[in-house]
Amino acid sequence: MTESLIHALVEMQEAEALQKSKQLLDEGTDPVNILEACSKAMETVGKRFEQGEYFLPHLIMAGVMLKQISETIKPLIKEGKTEAGRGRVLMGTVRGDIHDIGKNIVIFLLEVNGFEVRDIGIDQPPESFVEAIREFRPGVVGMSGLLTLAFDSMKKTVRAIEDAGLREKVRIMIGGAQVTEQVKDYTGADAYGPDALAGVRLVEQWIGGE
Q1: Is 2-78 a CATH 1.10.1240.10 domain?
Q2: Closest by Cα among 98, 116, 119 to 176
Q3: Which CATH number applies to 88-207: 3.40.50.300, 3.40.1190.20, 3.40.50.280, 3.40.30.10?
Q4: pTM for the full predicted model
Q5: pLDDT exceeds cutoff 80 at 210
Q6: Is 171:190 a contact under the CB 8 Å cutoff?
């Protein structure tokens, strides 16, 4: 049933997308599944952007639609799930990439599961990650990037963390629609998450007991 929501988001059908998300909720669909459908839609939008079929206004429109949907869904997920003090996670989208929908979903799911998360935003250079690690002292660093050009930025960021003498202090995960095991190896990250829930599972595995 979420396929119709994905289609509406990808085709920039705002009214249809909002109506479909409400219908799915009314039918008892797990809110997390709806967020995952939104993430998949953004992956397709990102690919069309890379291929020159979509442009910046399309990315902005997709972000507006997803923000409206997530604001409706988030309170339903948050009820009764917060557990404080499970460790710190630093999240950011790397230099050259402005996508943040997938990152935001991961952040939200981490927060409702009791992790303290700092989001440094989009298009962040390596030095921003290094500075935030020194200040925030996270156990996990998550780097997001939807475009293939983000891979080099991820690699440079990991190298900057190493050069700063901080690599042994953090576990690094990367994520994005086109991230694979090969990209993980190329960047020097510890692991990658093919979807938002996988990212949360990595954090649970690494620092969930802190």
Answers
A1: yes
A2: 98
A3: 3.40.50.280
A4: 0.73
A5: no
A6: yes
